[in-house]
């Protein structure tokens, strides 16, 4: 039997008092409704009175919010003097590739063949299917061109019995329509296409992808969201917020003298239990009859690294993982195949994923599709890795412009660049917490609905991946039932975000009311540089080192990793206002050799002189392979291995 589609739940504004986002804090101040003020210097979100005044009623009273409640959003020069030395738009890993090297083999309409029949090489192909996340089932070699029943095909050609050419082809083998598990006949369903570029920050995208952004904003009427705040350190917690709506990192509220919000999943559950029974976005879309696709250009992927289970039965109708397994794993693809994306052929990972996505869009002209591409290789390690791909994303969008006109298109980063000296600049330090987001809506909704107006309004405020997730669920379940005309704020049970395709609840959006760990907060607070040459500064550094050592001890890594000792304070900034009598500082401290680890943290010095480290301590410089003796994602940034020979091939996300 079909379930009925989920009902729209408008937020009864009284229920806001029950919300987890600390509205109580604002009740005290909530006797008036603040009108949002947006100037280049100050942005005060509006919030509403909790009692007695109706949801819509607005008061003209303006009250200046206290220092800790306001969220002054960052407005700055993307090309300021400090960041310019780090920006090189000419970096192109393909600059030495040979454009005349075209694939010798083809995969067209389900059959493989040779580009040139007179070719003197001996070519063969074999199929790669997914057996598990980390293993492919590999077919036998076929020397006869003809039909193949797999989506990932390895092609190799030999000259005098030496393999001289290797290539991985992809195709989409369409499957029969999926019967929805809910009644969908009254829903207006659109495709949703997500392109996530790992480590793509807002300002970095503006520097690196001018043509793609200009095409999206101009031709596709996309709205840019400059103020998205990441909700976790690296890919996984941000990906899990988007895909599952779950919090992986504790939100420490000790700055505000409030209880912390604990993570939804323990590391153990996240890593060692298959996620098949959790409701991911992919499950949700399948339930509504969509075909789903996931392509990640890394065999470990968002859910698997470094030793986690991911899915047993993945909720993806089309999953590119066998491609990455063939490319990266032992005893999978041949060496000649593994080399084919190394630069000579002018082909990179993101090309292969955009090809696969394009094949998906072409394969199902009449069915609804939800697709997600996660490109990790371009920008993971450098500020300058993404610029050369601008034309590739542009070309993809132009090539598929008709299909994308009927789709919501979400172009997004998970977090910003986490490594390198650029993080020491103002822009780089902001970028790491401020992922890019641009969204275009289907062409027929641009003029006939108010969605673009709402998005433009909401884009002036702080947003998170939880809000993006809610917006995607809104497209799937709620707006689809009202022909995308719903404008009232929406509360989705169990969700931490609010769809920005409509009004959002008028609670002020700051890092206290939204699920953002404070150490990542992009709201700007006036701070003053203070001397590091005193006892308090050194004591703060010692507390940060202790906090790191505690983490290592708790994780049982004290045997493997050296004990951190503070060497000096690199920067000490004092917040201009105290919090309930405590001074608050933002600190970067360098540890003694051999680690020379730089750690960044916020600390509070209580009126009694007691020092408290707030929230998570962040690693602020690269640790490369110095933590390779341990696998725990959480602890690696804190670890410098006692034995530096024990390197394995770990990589961080
Ligand atoms: Zn990432």
Automatic annotation (TrEMBL):
Keywords assigned by UniProt, alphabetized: Membrane, Transmembrane, Transmembrane helix
GO CC terms in record: extracellular space
Stretches that traverse the bilayer: 21-44
Pfam hit, one: DUF229
Keyword Cytoplasm tagged: no
SUPFAM superfamilies: Alkaline phosphatase-like
Protein name: Uncharacterized protein
Gene: Cnig_chr_V.g16872
């Amino acid at each position: 039997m079909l379930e009925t589609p989920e009902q729209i739940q408008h937020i009864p504004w009284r229920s806001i008092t029950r919300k987890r986002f600390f509205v109580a804090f604002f009740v005290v101040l909530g006797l008036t409704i603040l009108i949002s003020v947006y100037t280049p210097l100050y942005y005060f979100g509006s919030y509403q009175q909790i009692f007695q005044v109706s949801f819509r009623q607005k008061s003209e009273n303006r009250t200046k919010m206290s220092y800790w409640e306001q969220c002054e959003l960052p407005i700055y020069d993307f090309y300021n003097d400090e960041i310019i030395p780090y920006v090189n738009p000419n970096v192109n890993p393909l600059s030495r590739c040979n454009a005349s090297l075209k694939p010798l083999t083809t995969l067209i309409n389900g059959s493989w063949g040779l580009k040139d029949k007179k070719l003197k090489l001996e070519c063969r192909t074999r199929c790669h299917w997914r057996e598990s996340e980390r293993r492919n089932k590999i077919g036998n070699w076929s020397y006869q061109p003809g039909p193949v029943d797999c989506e990932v095909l390895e092609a190799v050609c030999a000259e005098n019995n030496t393999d001289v050419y290797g290539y991985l082809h992809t195709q989409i083998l369409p499957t029969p329509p999926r019967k929805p598990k809910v009644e969908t006949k009254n829903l207006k369903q659109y495709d949703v296409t997500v392109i996530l570029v790992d480590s793509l920050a807002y300002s970095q995208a503006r520097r690196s992808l001018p043509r793609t952004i200009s095409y999206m904003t101009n031709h596709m009427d996309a709205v840019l969201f400059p103020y998205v705040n990441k909700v976790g350190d690296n890919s996984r917690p941000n990906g899990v917020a988007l895909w599952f709506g779950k919090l992986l990192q504790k939100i420490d509220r000790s700055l505000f003298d409030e209880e912390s919000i604990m993570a939804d999943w323990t590391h153990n559950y996240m890593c060692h239990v298959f996620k098949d029974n959790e409701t991911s976005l992919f499950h949700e879309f399948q339930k509504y009859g969509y075909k789903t696709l996931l392509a990640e250009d890394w065999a470990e992927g968002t859910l698997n690294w470094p030793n986690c289970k991911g899915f047993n039965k993945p909720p993806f109708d089309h999953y590119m993982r066998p491609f990455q397994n063939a490319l990266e794993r032992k005893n999978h693809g041949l060496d000649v195949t593994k080399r084919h994306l190394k630069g000579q052929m002018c082909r990179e990972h993101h090309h292969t994923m955009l090809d696969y996505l394009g094949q998906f869009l072409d394969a199902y002209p009449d069915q609804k599709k939800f697709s997600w591409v996660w490109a990790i290789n371009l920008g993971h390690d450098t500020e300058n890795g993404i610029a050369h791909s601008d034309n590739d994303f542009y070309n993809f969008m132009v090539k598929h412009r008709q299909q994308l006109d009927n789709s919501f298109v979400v172009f997004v980063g998970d977090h910003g660049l986490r490594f390198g000296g650029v993080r020491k600049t103002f822009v780089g330090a902001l970028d790491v917490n401020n992922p890019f987001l641009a969204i275009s809506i289907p062409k027929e909704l641009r003029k006939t609905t108010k969605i673009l107006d709402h998005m433009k309004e909401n884009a002036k405020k702080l947003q998170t991946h939880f809000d993006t997730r809610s917006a995607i669920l809104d497209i799937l379940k709620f707006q689809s039932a009202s022909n995308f005309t719903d404008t009232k704020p929406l509360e989705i049970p169990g969700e931490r975000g609010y769809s920005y395709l409509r009004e959002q609840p008028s609670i002020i959006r700051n890092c206290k009311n939204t699920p953002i760990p404070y150490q990542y907060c992009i709201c700007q607070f006036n701070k003053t540089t203070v001397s590091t040459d005193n006892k308090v500064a050194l004591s703060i550094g010692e507390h940060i080192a202790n906090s790191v050592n505690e983490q290592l001890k708790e994780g049982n890594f004290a045997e493997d990793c050296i004990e951190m000792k503070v060497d000096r304070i690199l920067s000490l900034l004092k917040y201009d206002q105290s919090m309930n009598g405590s001074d608050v500082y933002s600190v970067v401290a360098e540890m003694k050799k051999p680690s020379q680890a730089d750690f960044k943290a916020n600390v509070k010095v209580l009126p009694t002189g007691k020092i408290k480290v707030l929230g998570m301590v962040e690693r602020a410089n690269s640790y490369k392979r110095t933590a390779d003796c341990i696998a725990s994602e959480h602890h690696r940034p804190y670890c410098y291995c006692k034995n530096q020979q024990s390197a394995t091939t770990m990589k961080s996300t």
